[in-house]
Amino acid sequence: MLAVFDKSVAKCPEGLQSPHSRLDSGEGNRSLIDHFCSVNEGSVTMNLGSAGSMAYTTEKQNPLLPRVFAVVHDIFCVFQGHIENITLLKQQYGLSKAADEVIIIIEAYRTLRDRGPYPADQVVRDLNGKFAFILFDSSSKATFIAADADGSVPFFWGTNFEGDLVLSDDSEIIKKGCGKSFAPFPKGCFFTTSGGLQSFEHPLKELKPMPRVDSEGQVCGANYKVDTESKKDSGIPRVGSAANWSSHY
User: Fold this and answer.
1) Cα angle 187, 191, 197; round to 5
2) The architecture CATH gives domain 2-248
3) C-alpha–C-alpha distance, residues 144 and 136, integer Å
4) Each residue's pLDDT tens digit, 90-131
5) Which residue, 7, 46, 17, is CA-closest to 178?
6) Is the pTM for the entire model greater than 0.90?
């Protein structure tokens, strides 16, 4: 899977930018999507207009960590992996028995966006399983991206020479698009347009960039780790569940 989001939709953390990126700048949005399609048979692409592009294929995938794609009410989502407590989540979100993982993610996001009774970290923490997903809401130009606490699904992110955010489960695609400016997506974390990168395992802790050097001795995009010494305001309003939480995910 692959997504390229314009910097106006998803602002890249500064730590992803490598000082060597000008020497190895990677490819732009359209050329990277074209390359992905050329090396992945049966690829499906979605043009998101000025917001960017998404692409995925069901070929060459791990049968234990399948990719699934869906579009519901202008919400695009690619999910890879599986959720173990899927039956419980279907009941929680009032979904039919036929609903799969990607539909659950979309419904969870809609709940957060429209009137979520829980903060986003709680929603992601309730997903038990091995997963990574990329969601884009074209109506509000918002992203929602996450990976499980163990990093079970290979998942990378980076920034291209135009400053756009690039995400993929294929490290070679990321390298081609971002040069040195990439890193594994942080385990146990999620990223939103409004809130940036956050830990759902430790929601009251800050994340800090840790320098990462490749085999050639060049500085690459940083790994983000939980700063155990930090503490931040949860941002959770102390009001009843009838309040609108849409600005807190």
Assistant:
1) 75
2) 4-Layer Sandwich (3.60)
3) 6
4) 999 999 999 999 999 999 999 999 876 678 999 999 999 999
5) 17
6) no
